[in-house]
Amino acid sequence: MGVRRKRVGKAGQPPTVLLVEPRADDLERTRMLLGEAGFRVVPVTRFDAAVPLFEVIRPDAVLLAAQAPDYAAMQVARRLKQLSRGSVPLLYLVDSSDAGAYQHCLEKGQCVDVAPRAGSGAELTVKLHAQLRLKAAVLRAASGEEEETALALHDPVTGLYNRPFLLALLGLEVRRCERYGGTFSVVAAEVSGWSALRKDAGRGMAERLLVYSAVALGQTVREADAVARVGESQFAVMLPGTPAEAVPVMLSRVTARFESARFQVDGRVVRTSLALGAVSFPDTVGTPHQLLNAAQQEMRRTREFRRLAGAMARVSV
């Protein structure tokens, strides 16, 4: 039976965090840090107890300690994502000194964000607050009092968020990071060959490619990320809590997803690809419009560089 969706941090109640940590000392330390930060913590040391407990307490967020060799946290994360339908933010806790575990979680962690297991706990609490507040803002806006309010937030073709709503979310995230600290990234993407397909096969088929691309993109990012259509053949993704050094892994994951994708037109397979570019806050600062424009400019620079590199390769042959 699916988990009922509940509001994040009901009025007068602290948000509940399910903490799954097999190390007793780390469990107590993290519990105390989160308690001091205003969270209600439900601690458990066994991964096999996480799912039954999740269904009983219906937490607002879940923290899963991830470590070699079995990375049991990833199996639990997969099940929790199915139960919650992506409505509950998840975070892996990884030892700061364990670069292998950090990379493993980024590459194979089903798009779940990563936070340090040790230290002051500042980064962990910032990421938790950011994900919970973003989720609450999205749910409040998407469930507007009138149907027209909710529809106004979405692109009618792909069902993704539209450009104005993404800019509003970016504004919220900028103010949140300026006040509490933290980082986020913005990725711009454009479907290659969309204009040519529209000319050859018609607008209906071109819009099918957009829907197909939107689904593939949505399946690749994390549940805390916000995906929007921002132009005829352009998309953008806001990645809360994602620093610049983590962006290349996300971009490579998206690229690989589209390289393996197959879109059929009149019985023939059309290979799709995305031109990608990204910027990260606070490395890049500005208004939401400026941040989105900077990501799009980076996308165009990357696309031009690859075009020139391909031309030079053909000439050398």
From TrEMBL:
<protein>
    <submittedName>
        <fullName>C-signal regulator ActA</fullName>
    </submittedName>
</protein>
<dbReference type="GO" id="GO:0000160">
    <property type="term" value="P:phosphorelay signal transduction system"/>
</dbReference>
<dbReference type="InterPro" id="IPR043128">
    <property type="entry name" value="Rev_trsase/Diguanyl_cyclase"/>
</dbReference>
<dbReference type="InterPro" id="IPR000160">
    <property type="entry name" value="GGDEF_dom"/>
</dbReference>
<dbReference type="Pfam" id="PF00990">
    <property type="entry name" value="GGDEF"/>
</dbReference>
<dbReference type="InterPro" id="IPR001789">
    <property type="entry name" value="Sig_transdc_resp-reg_receiver"/>
</dbReference>
<dbReference type="InterPro" id="IPR052155">
    <property type="entry name" value="Biofilm_reg_signaling"/>
</dbReference>
<feature type="domain" description="GGDEF">
    <location>
        <begin position="182"/>
        <end position="317"/>
    </location>
</feature>
<dbReference type="InterPro" id="IPR029787">
    <property type="entry name" value="Nucleotide_cyclase"/>
</dbReference>
<dbReference type="InterPro" id="IPR011006">
    <property type="entry name" value="CheY-like_superfamily"/>
</dbReference>
<feature type="domain" description="Response regulatory">
    <location>
        <begin position="16"/>
        <end position="132"/>
    </location>
</feature>
